[in-house]
Structures are given as structure tokens and as C-alpha cells.
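Figure S7 source data.
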Amino acid sequence: MTRPKNSSKFKGFMQENSLTILTIIGVAVGIIVGLILKNSTGPWTKREIMYIAFPGELFLRMLKCLIVPLLVSSITSAIGSLDLSMSGRIATRAIVYYFLTTVSAVILGIVLVTTIRPGQVGQVDEFMTDDVEKNSKVLTPDTLMDLVRNMFSDNIVQATMFQYRTEISAPKNITQKDLPMELWEFSGKYKDGSNVLGLVMFSIILGTTIGRMREQGKLLQEFFTTLSEAMMIITSWVIWISPLGVAFLITAKIIEMHSLVLVVQQLGWYFLTVMLGLILHGFGTIPLLFFLGSGSLPYKYIGKLSQVLATAFGTGSSSATMPCTIKCLDGMGMDPRVTRFVIPVGATINMDGTALYEAVAALFIAQYRQVSYSFGTVIAVSITATAASIGAAGIPQAGLVTMVMVLDTVGLPAKDVSLIIAVDWLLDRFRTTINVMCDAIGTILVNKLSVKDLEIADRNAADPHELVELSNGHELKD
Ligand code: ASP
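C-alpha cells for the predicted aspartic acid complex:
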């Protein structure tokens, strides 16, 4: 008798979670097909790999295309619908969460790398990428100042396409080798890629202004709210392609990779240290902080985020996953005013997985090079690893580039990044998954903590003459 009930329950579950199930199947198929193709035929040419990646590339392009309009419209409408003190309170909660989680990720990474000491075994091959080479003279203050420069964009249209980056080069006709520091020349370049921080900052200010304009700003407020809703509808269509897109992206990446056995032999301990850190952080520290903040554990939410996590793994980009993350949190009943602030800002500056990896990688390389480091250096590594994770863009392997400044802290040259490049593409996917998960859990926590504020905002919006102040303003009118 209970059979039909069970089977209809199962059917309901499958229907409700079909996209999630399909995306997870996409990841599995991508890995299996990739491994089969890599080992049965080959070697594969770059052109063939490009053909295989093509459907995945189209999926990524569609997601990326949504980022700028979605980000600007959703932050502006979210902030515009709250008054200044409310949005200030939500922002403060989010920033405290970002800070606590990032610092604890770095500390965990340092504890693991100093106990496991993965750098003391094996011999590692070195590979180099152009991007790191070009950036090798850029120091921590340069990266941090670029971050602030990008926050204050000088041209908002340009910010949708390019971001500022300091470049340091030798004067013309002088050979670079052994050139003293003070003779290097600074120049600013606009590099491809949206300046997300500049757009976030501009949208926050625009939203605040629209909110303050009240009646006069209503038209703009409605415009941005409608635009954001339209973007979410497009997102819900694009998301249905994710199982296929993710499968092709992963297959191509696996075919492209270096010999897995060799990599595991050489970098196995390093890989395991980062992985252990990511798992402990994502499933230990974050739930603990969530518990301390809300009194409950977030595991049931993590389950509901599976589709988002699979997309993050497949794309290796927090920014590209952002539309899916917002859509999923909307589906979970989170307040759009919280989601639309916490997710875009988090996807840009809150990267716990990246912070943990930066600390582990820098100390791993120091151990491998047999450079001894003091407690002071470890503290400096934790600060620069935090800064490097904030400075890293939400795109694939951005952490590898900002790693240069952490290495500099340990007194190692930028080219040492080459030691870990072989496994970076894979670790990048895992750390992106944790980055995205932490942002999503943070949104749920901030949402829980802001319920009262949001209710008051709703009441004020319904009856603007009867302004209700928060309890800490000692003026609660009902
Ligand atoms: N790919 C990461 C992200 O988008 C950044 C990084 O660690 O390289 O979150």
C-alpha cells in the first residue's frame, strides 16, 4: 500500500531536483568521458580540444554576458529599496562574515601546511605562464592600490569591459637583469575583463542615491528592479544548459591535463593538504560560524546548493556562477535585498578557498626551496594571503596570479609559481566551489540575522509616514 506513496515521493523529488541531478551527472560524465578519451586515443591537438570545449565555451559566454547587467541592476535595486541605515547594517554583517571566514581559512591553511609539511617530499617539474612572468615585479602595495583604484573607476562604461592593472617594466634600451628597484618604470594598463569592484561601488552609490530621492527616484528604482527581474528570467533559461556545458568543459580540461600519475607523484601531498583544508573549512569552520551566528547548522542548505556547486566546479569562476547562485537562493526563499548585495560583493572579494590555497601554496614552495621562515613571516603570509584572495578576480586561476605577492612575503621569486601550476587547474575548481559555497551560506546567515530589519523596511515602505526605527534606535512604533 505504501508503494505508490513512496514512488510518487521519489517522482516529486526527481522533478524538483532534476536540474541539480542533471548537473551532477554532467560533472561525472565530463570526468569519465575525459579520462576515457585521454587514455584511449590521442595525443590530442589543441584544435581538437578546442572543438570539444566549444559547447562549454558557449555556456560560459552566456553566463558571463549576464554578469554586468545583473550585477548593476540587482545591487542598485536592492540598495535603493532599503534606507541607508538598513543597508549599512546588512553590509556590516556581510563584511564581518567575509572577514571572519577568510581569516579562519588562512589560519587553517597555515596550520595544515606546517603540520603536514608537503614541501619536504619529492621533486617537482617547473612550468611557467606568461601572465605570472609579466607580473613578477608587482608588489603587495601595487596589487592593493590597484584594488582601490578599480573601486573608484574613472569611467563607468569602461569599467564594464576593462580593469586597471599596474605594470612595472625596465626603461627602454636597458636590460632587465639586475636592474635596481628604483629604476623600474610604472605604467597603468587597462586589461580585458569587467571591473566588478568598480561596478559594485558605483551601483551601491547609485542605489543609495535613488533610495534617498524617494518619490523622484521611483522611476529609476522600478527600471533597475525590472531589469534585474528580466536578467533572472534569462538566467533561469541559461541554467538549463549547465549540465551539458559543465560536461564539455570538464572533458576538454581533462584531455588537456598533464599526466595525472606524474602530477600525483610530485604534488600529491600539496594537493591533499589544500583539499583537506578546503573540506575542513567548507564542512567544519563555515558550519561552525553559521551555528554561532544563527543557532542552527547549514548542511540542509548545502544540499540544496548542489547545482550551484557543480556549476562552480565546472566553470572555475565565481563570477560566472553568480547568476546561478542568485537564482538558487531566490528559490530557497532568501530576501532579494540581501542576496543581491551579499552575492555580487562576495563573488568579488570573499574567496575563502583561494585565501587558504594562497597560504598553503606559498609555504609549500618555501618548504620545497628549503627557505626557513619565522613566526613573523607566517603572520605576514596570512595578511598577504587574505589580501591576495580579495584582489583575485572571480575567474579561472586568478589566484595563481595574485600568488606572486604572497611569495614575495616569503622572499621567493614570482617564477616559483611554476612549481604548482600542474595541479592548479584542478585545485582552482575545488577552491571556486568552496568560494561560492561560502558566499551562499553567508547570504543565508545574513538573511537570518536581518529578518527584523527587513520587516521594518517593508513596513516603512508600506507606510512611509509612520517611520519605524530599529530597537537600538529606542523608537519602536507599531
Ligand atoms: N577561480 C577562483 C574563483 O573564481 C579564483 C581563484 O582562486 O583563482 O573564485
